[in-house]
Amino acid sequence: MAGRGKLIAVIGDEDTCTGFLLGGIGELNKNRKPNFLVVEKDTSITEIEETFKSFLARNDIGIILINQFIAEMIRHAIDAHMQSIPAVLEIPSKEHPYDASKDSILRRAKGMFLLRTSDEYTHSYVMFP
């Protein structure tokens, strides 16, 4: 992929995937694998998880967007992902609004920020008794 950036991958319901595909994110890699999965009623959790893990393993993907209600189905796999790239972002769908309390990655980021803030305060108290 010389000279090209990384792709956005989408795991979502039909409306979400259609919107992003109309926006131009649809790509096939050299193995003819798409960078999206349309999750329908009959899509198995195993297929969702395998697709998610395959997106994590691809070096041409920089961001994975996933509908939050689908992320709930594979929460253990999302929680196990500790790398910053590809970034995993949970997004709302037309029928399922975003709930920040369910977003484990947002909670992890908040925890890192709070830890950094508390460390800075600790150091400032040490430096200025």
UniProtKB/TrEMBL annotation:
GO terms for molecular function: proton-transporting ATPase activity, rotational mechanism. Keywords: Hydrogen ion transport, Ion transport, Transport. GO terms for cellular component: proton-transporting V-type ATPase, V1 domain. InterPro entries: ATPase_V1-cplx_f_g_su, ATPase_V1-cplx_fsu_euk, ATPase_V1_fsu_sf. Gene3D superfamilies: ATPase, V1 complex, subunit F. It comes from the Eukaryota. Belongs to the V-ATPase F subunit family. Subunit of the V1 complex of vacuolar(H+)-ATPase (V-ATPase), a multisubunit enzyme composed of a peripheral complex (V1) that hydrolyzes ATP and a membrane integral complex (V0) that translocates protons. V-ATPase is responsible for acidifying and maintaining the pH of intracellular compartments and in some cell types, is targeted to the plasma membrane, where it is responsible for acidifying the extracellular environment. V-ATPase is a heteromultimeric enzyme made up of two complexes: the ATP-hydrolytic V1 complex and the proton translocation V0 complex. This is V-type proton ATPase subunit F. It comes from Neogobius melanostomus (round goby).
